[in-house]
Amino acid sequence: MVTQTQSKGLQVREGRIELTAPYLDSERTFIYPPVRGIYTKCAEQLSEQGLYQPTFSEIVSLAHGAWQNSDEKYSKEIIKIMKDSWIRGFTGILYNKEGAYIQDKPQIVDGRVSMSENDLVRKLESKDSSVRFVPFGYKTGEQSSRALAKNPFVIALCGSEDAGKEQAEKLAEVADKYRTSPWLFSYDSTNEPITRVSALDSYWGGYGLDVYGGNHGDDRDDYAFGVSAPKALQ
Predict the structure, then answer these.
(1) Over 50: is that where the pLDDT of 234 sits?
(2) Which pTM was predicted?
């Protein structure tokens, strides 16, 4: 039997437990419980369940929705997961000497995230919204929530152009729910290409928001929420 309840934040539909959050001018329905494991295994598990792998931008909406009514059962669970571990976003980052290429749902080849700079440049030139580039010079580490919302790397991690700005604002609203200033973990320079993936958590036992652009993807304790794919993504 399926029952449905509503709250100010997430809309909860129990049976196959669906957590629906607003996303830009639409919505995303996340499936509970999440899967757990290294990045590539989480991606594999979600695909086996017929679920879409959410980008970093989309998990921002999940966290934002949870904080709209933090006493609701599943909202509390999401907030606790962020306190104890990471929630994965399926957005990858390729750092080079100039800055960071950011790609939603990068390919997985032979069990590893694969991001080719030549391919990323071609996608940028063709105005592919799944790929962004941010030159070094952006602020890393601790910063105010307002600075986080205006940070070029964070905006690009959250999406392209206006969509990225809108989701970065939501991320700042999440950051304001915590006691201390948020942190952006990212590289600010590198002499060789480095591939990483994105994640979101609240560090120091839940005291502050942590935006992660440097996750190795190999932590077996990280979580990933699958999304019931919108028709446009099926």
Answers:
(1) no
(2) 0.91
